[in-house]
Amino acid sequence: MQHEMRAEYWETDTEQSPPWPVKTWHMVRQGERAAMCGRELRPDARGLSDAEWGRTPEPMCHTCGALYLREVP
């Protein structure tokens, strides 16, 4: 199964255009919009390869991480 990281942002003025400050990174299954933890993410949220998991200065979602590790070899 393919995965990608997607950003959850700090609440900002919706009139402001990206990029917003990243609050947390979540893992998303390919083709899905919601994070593995169930959080709905913005459709325009920044994405990164799952190879970047643990390499960003912002924190990772603990729940997404636990579920992701159960799905990858």
Structural features:
three-stranded antiparallel beta sheet; single chain; 73 residues
How would you describe this protein?
With 73 residues, this protein is α+β, with helices and mostly antiparallel strands. It has one domain (3-71). It is built from one helix and three strands, in the order E-E-E-H. A three-stranded antiparallel β-sheet has the order 2-1-3. The longest helix is centred in the last third of the chain and has 10 residues, at 62-71. Residues 1-21 are annotated as: Disordered.
Sequence of secondary-structure elements:
EEEH
Supply Rg: 12 Å
Number of helices: 1
Outline the low-pLDDT stretches: none
Total E-strand runs: 3
Number of domains: 1
Strand content: 15-25%
- pLDDT averaged residue by residue: 89
Topology:
Layout: E1 3-9, E2 22-29, E3 47-49, H1 62-71
Antiparallel strand pairs: 1-2, 1-3
Brief write-up:
The chain is of the alpha+beta class and 73 residues long. The chain has one helix at 62-71; strands at residues 3-9, 22-29, 47-49.
